[in-house]
Amino acid sequence: MLLSLSFSFLHHFLFSMENKYLNILSFCFSNTICGLLIVSWLARNIIYSNGLRTALAWRRKTRMKKNQDAENKMSLLDLPDLTLDCILEKLSPSELCAMSCVCSELRDRCVSDHLWKKHMEKKWGRLMGDAAVKEWKTHVATLMSCLRNSNPSSSRSNTQKWSLRVAANLKPFSWLKTNHGCYNRCSSSSSPIDSLMYWYSNLESGKFWFPAQVYNRENGHVGFMMSCYDAKVRYDYKTDTFQARYSAHGRRAAEENVTWQRLRPAMIETESRDLHVSDSLQGLRPGDHFEIQWRRTKEFPYGWWFGVVGHLQNCVGEENCRCISDENVVMEFRQFRTESPWKTTVLNRKEHRETGNEVGGFYGGVKKLCTEEEVSTWKRLWPEQVLD
């Protein structure tokens, strides 16, 4: 009896629930909008559940593959220090600058002085004499002093940051835009202002004027043929030549397109207005090549002029020449005609100081040319015609 009642109740309950849901479904399907929403919801849930599982599986697989590839690949920075340095030493200056833009660790390596030392020596070593080095050190000291004075309470690390900022603002790497095309990327990663890389970049970009001596100044002006004068020069990377500024009494001359072959280092021991101490007069003999200081008036700076030691007038000839034992020595300038007042001059070996007058100019110190390279450099500059 009890079981019969239970089945009767359950049947009544299911019938009532069935009627209720059938009514709801009947309403929903009779209403087009609700039907579409229900179908869309059911489809989205089915697709999303399957798609999500597929996407997660693909993502896990991809991540595992990337991790596996990363483990199998070696980064440039994973190389031993010695190997990495050997690679960096093979790079050109512009390539080193480009490499310094990759990351901070490579930048610290690429600005190292030991990498830039060979580049400095290869391109600029011949012109960076003692006078140019002194000028650069003074320039760096001035910049560093300005940095310290502008921020006196800063630490060393802050000073280094400031030096990087100043280097970036001065834009010494403009030559890279032509040579390598990476200037826009690298201008913000400038090297410290006391580094060889910064010195090299200032030379290349023409930001640094340095002292040098110029052969046959002012485009080979006839009044300066076979001479060499002090000047301040800077490099023009577009033409691979130099600009020069000469200091003279009453005017300042300038010259462009000065080639590498016409330059040599300036002498720090003798400036353009100082008399050179002649320490080679005693040993000069006919045929020796020399340079002598000469200036038109005492208000002008000295220039160095090329000449050859000649024979005295009373010399009996090459075989019995005794000019080496005479107290006087003949200095010949064979680029001039015989009748020219600047063709020859005679100096006293023991008591020579500055000699001359307002007509023929003033002769200063003498130095003997001891190497064939020095002599051949002068001979390459010999004028095509004899000078008056």
Which descriptors apply to this entry?
alpha+beta, 18% strand, 11-stranded antiparallel sheet, single chain, 388 residues, membrane
Q: How do you describe this structure in short?
A:
With 388 residues, the protein is an alpha+beta fold.
Structure description:
With 388 residues, the chain is an alpha+beta fold. Among the domains are: 91-205, no CATH class; 211-265; 289-380, no CATH class. It has 13 helices and 11 strands. It has helices at residues 2-30, 32-72, 81-89, 93-99, 104-110, 113-123, 130-150, 156-170, 176-179, 183-186, 196-205, 217-220, 372-380; strands spanning 210-215, 227-236, 241-248, 251-258, 263-265, 289-295, 303-310, 328-332, 344-348, 355-357, 361-368. Residues 165-170 and 180-189 have low confidence and may be disordered. It holds the Pfam family F-box. This is F-box domain-containing protein.
Q: Spell out the helices and strands N to C.
A: HHHHHHHHHHHEHEEEEEEEEEEH
The number of helices is 13
Low-pLDDT windows of residues: 165-170, 180-189
Shape summary: elongated
Going by helix content, strand content and strand pairing, the class is alpha+beta
Q: Which radius of gyration do the C-alpha atoms yield?
A: 42 Å
The helicity comes to 40-55%
Number of strands: 11
Sheet having the most strands: 11 strands, antiparallel
**Beta-strand content bin:** 15-25%
Compute the separation of the termini in Å.
151 Å
Mean pLDDT across every amino acid position: 80
State the assembly state of the protein chains: single chain
Protein name: F-box domain-containing protein
Domain F-box: 73-119
Transmembrane segments: 21-43
Keywords: Membrane, Transmembrane, Transmembrane helix
